[in-house]
Design brief:
Helices cover about 75% and strands about 5% of the residues. By secondary structure, it is an all-alpha fold. A hairpin with an 8-residue loop joins strand 2 and strand 3 (about 355-360). The longest helix is centred in the middle third of the chain and has 42 residues, at about 180-225.
């Protein structure tokens, strides 16, 4: 415990921890809109499109100047977003094809520029490779102010255009019919995603940035049904993933922060897919099992009621073999036990036969009538 406290007192660890949490919150908030707009690959395309901007910023500045590099990354990322939007609107290609074209072309240009820079030599060019996978230890206190400013700007924009962003995310056609500037709103959302990617390049890099955008939103989608709840939960999951990854990386030798952050976010997605109430796989499996049990119960009750009506005797006892013939299969013992425990049927003997028989109780007749939608069978006594 003392070692952890000493570790957290380090300025470097504090800076990385705060930076990772800020980046996770920003990415989670903006990623929610990308997921709802079915543009999960948008972050992947823009993050890869930022690589040539990183290289151009390095060439223009003549060195690894963070401001120039980030400005270049934002410039090419925004350009890639505009090209993607133009391809979708001016051609017959769909969004996924446009994203694939932009991603591959811009990343190829970035790799070519990166190769050219490295062949020129110089120690400064070696640091450019960190933008592929990130280098959290290089984050400075001054970078936190930049992250905080971008995060605050993103929050203010989301709050100011909440109704418009919500409508564009769920029904673009209706928003356009209502006279909303859909193209401008989508451009604003895209630029915000590009800003988040630029901020995250130094922490998680070009390759892994898309996971930090999509994973928190995908997890949050499992836990809430409202846009507001999804945005808040996604930002919280992103912040927790960033802070958790920074702590694990700081306490474990040789682990890079970016990949650990992504792995934690992915782990939260997997847990959410399994146990989220109503939507998790476990919940769905349980619901399916309950539905099958209800169907099986209903068939048995309906069969017993049919025998009772056929013999004009509400308490007519039916043997298991009779139920098997009527149902086409032997009724499971678990089904009969469940119905008996709920007071819908009871086990009786029917001399001279020695095998067990079952008859509907009054509650069973009521339940069977409710399931079939028919009037309740008249009650008789033997």
């Amino acid at each position: 415990m003392t070692a952890i406290i000493d570790l957290l007192s380090s300025d470097i660890v504090q800076t990385v921890l705060i930076g990772a949490a800020l980046l996770g919150a920003i990415s989670g908030m903006l990623g929610a809109f990308a997921v709802l707009r079915r543009q999960s690959l948008l972050g992947d395309a823009l993050s890869h499109a930022a690589l040539p901007g990183v290289c151009l910023g390095f060439l223009i500045a003549g060195g690894r100047d963070l401001g120039s590099v980030m400005a270049g990354a934002f410039g090419t990322g925004a350009l890639a977003a505009l090209i993607m939007m133009l391809i979708v609107r001016r051609t017959t290609l769909k969004t996924d094809a446009a994203l694939g074209i932009v991603l591959s072309v811009f990343f190829a240009v970035g790799i070519v520029l990166l190769t050219v820079i490295q062949t020129q030599g110089g120690s400064g060019s070696l640091g450019l490779m960190t933008f592929l996978f990130g280098q959290a230890a290089a984050i400075l206190r001054s970078d936190l102010w930049v992250m905080g400013g971008i995060g605050l700007a993103a929050i203010l924009l989301v709050l100011a255009f909440w109704k418009e962003f919500k409508l564009v995310s769920f029904d673009t056609a209706f928003a356009r019919a209502q006279g909303f500037p859909v193209t401008a709103l989508e451009a604003v959302l895209t630029v915000m995603v590009a800003l988040a990617i630029v901020v995250g390049l130094q922490l998680v890099g070009v390759v892994l940035m898309v996971a930090l955008l999509i994973a928190p939103a995908a997890a949050a989608r499992q836990w809430t049904k409202s846009l507001g709840g999804m945005v808040v939960v996604s930002a919280a999951i992103g912040a927790a993933s960033g802070a958790g990854g920074a702590l694990v990386s700081a306490t474990t030798r040789g682990l890079a922060t970016g990949p650990v952050v992504v792995l934690i976010a992915t782990g939260i997605v997997m847990v959410s897919l399994l146990i989220a109430p109503g939507r998790g796989l476990i919940w769905q499996a349980a619901a399916t099992q309950r539905a099958r049990a209800r169907i099986s119960d209903g068939r048995v009750l309906a069969t017993l009621q049919g025998f009772a009506q056929m013999h004009d005797d509400a308490g007519y006892p039916s043997e298991r073999g009779m139920l098997q013939i009527a149902l086409g299969a032997k009724p499971p013992a678990a089904t009969l036990a469940s119905l008996e425990s709920r007071g819908l049927i009871r086990s009786v003997m029917h001399p001279p036969e020695t095998t067990p028989h079952w008859e509907l109780t009054k509650a069973g007749h009521t339940e069977a009538a409710a399931l079939s939608g028919e009037p309740e069978t008249r009650q008789h006594t033997k």
